[in-house]
Specification:
Elements (H helix, E strand, L loop, with lengths): L1 E4 L5 H11 L6 H4 L7 E7 L6 E14 L2 E13 L8 H15 L4 E4 L4 H5 L4 E2 L2 E8 L11 E4 L7 H12 L21 H4 L2 E6 L5 E12 L2 E11 L2 H12 L7 E7 L16 E7 L2 E4 L2 H7 L6 E8 L9 E7 L2 E7 L6 E4 H9 L4 H7 L3 E3 L22
Parallel strand pairs: 4-5, 11-12, 15-18
Antiparallel strand pairs: 1-2, 2-3, 3-4, 5-14, 6-14, 7-12, 7-13, 8-9, 9-10, 10-11, 15-16, 16-17, 18-19
Length: about 400
């Protein structure tokens, strides 16, 4: 088996492989277009025939991590032709791609798994969780909203208002993609009458954008519902504005469904939970992996002052597979150096990735997380590993 980055002339075949593997039709003309510089494809080839067996794509993003914009590789398009499955093609791609990502300056990687157990083999661990909500519109009683709601249609300048709302979320949550101007092409393509996709932006009385949503109608088992593909708001006023919009559609629809960050405080946005007025569930939304442990430790936010020694076990990236002495003061790293003394905690790269990005705090992790060994409980590890706001809305 040969593993390498694909050549530009192999892009069409890589897309064909994905379409065959997942039994999804493709547009041949679109599939043959060359990738831009933010897309990197790895593939495994059969050594005898030279046929492409497996491949995946790494999409470049900047994401928020503890106040920093970090380079993140979003893994997508993971596919193997059926006749080559269980031959180690994807494993080989990860074995080559992960060290290359380290050398290329990535801090983090993220993916949406078909199997969490499978991707744990390559150092990924469950990351962001989302709170999926369904609100019964006939029982919705939102607070008064004195602003305005505007439907985005062709020729309606909504891009800057939507970007302003996104910037608020991008500044609050770890793993949020820091969107670039070119990511807003979708705001130039509004045509709700034809496409039946509806984007509304809500504004305060002074014209400040407070929230936006995009939804479509869906006839589902539990009713004729509104399903949101985008849902973001700046504050309680923005949330109230969106709820007033949905209340105006109650006569023709049963539920509105959307996702929120997994914050306990979000429950207080809803005035009523009883009588099935609102219901929800938490669900994993992808897996995270630290690509460069030293860089992430340098950028991490800490609590107060202290010093710890962390031993990380990473069989895929040798530079991560060692002990790190971390000193921090006033919430920031003072130094991150190689350590020879006994570690305060030993962590697999999976456990480290989840904990440093903020999935849960140390006490929870010590009870339930595999791959964490606390050797010195008196060390200030809880000042390093604690729950942080996390959210991601992009798919790749």
């Amino acid at each position: 088996m040969i593993v390498r980055k694909i050549k530009p002339e192999e892009v069409l075949r890589a897309n064909e492989l994905f379409a065959i593997a997942f039994e999804q039709p493709m547009d041949r003309e679109a599939a043959a277009k060359p990738d831009n510089e933010d897309v990197h494809r790895w593939a495994a080839f059969d050594e005898g025939s030279g046929e492409m067996m497996s491949n995946f794509v790494i999409n470049d993003y900047d994401v928020r991590f503890d106040g920093h914009a970090c380079k993140m590789g979003g893994i997508g398009g993971v596919a193997t032709l059926p006749q080559y499955r269980r031959r180690g093609g994807i494993r080989g791609c990860f074995q080559e791609a992960l060290p290359d990502m380290y050398a290329s300056g990535y801090d983090l990687s993220y993916l949406y798994p078909f199997s969490t157990a499978y991707y744990r083999k390559f150092g990924y661990e469950c990351g962001v969780r989302k709170f999926f909500i369904a609100v019964r519109l006939n029982l919705l009683a939102p607070p008064e909203f004195n602003g305005t709601l505007r439907l985005a249609e062709a020729g309606t300048p909504m891009t800057e208002a939507i970007r302003a709302v996104d910037a608020c979320w991008e500044g609050k949550y770890n793993m949020m993609v820091q969107h670039r101007p070119e990511d807003y092409k979708w705001t130039k393509e509004f045509d709700p009458a034809v496409k039946q996709g509806f984007t509304y932006v809500c504004f305060a009385q002074d014209g400040t954008p407070k929230g936006y949503t995009t939804f479509t109608k869906a006839d589902e088992k539990d009713g004729r519902n509104l399903v949101c593909s985008r849902f973001a708001f700046v504050d309680r006023e923005g949330f109230a504005g969106l709820m007033n919009l949905f209340k105006s559609l109650a006569a023709d629809h049963a539920l509105v469904k959307f996702a929120l960050p997994a914050s306990e405080a979000m429950q207080y946005l809803f005035p009523e939970w009883s009588m099935d007025a609102a219901s929800g569930f938490l669900h994993p939304a992808g897996m995270v992996r630290v690509v460069n442990v030293e860089s992430v430790l340098q950028k991490a936010a800490y609590i107060g002052d202290g010093a710890v020694v962390l031993a990380v076990r990473d069989p895929q990236i040798p530079e991560n597979d060692r002990a790190f002495a971390v000193r921090f003061a006033q919430g920031k790293a003072v130094s991150v150096e190689a350590a020879s003394e006994e570690a305060d905690a030993v962590l697999t790269i999976q456990a480290f990735s989840a904990l440093i990005t903020g999935v849960c705090d140390l006490q929870e992790a010590a009870l339930w997380m595999d791959g964490l060994e606390v050797r010195r409980p008196e060390a200030p590890l809880a000042q390093v590993f604690y729950r942080k706001p996390m959210m991601i809305v992009d798919y790749f």
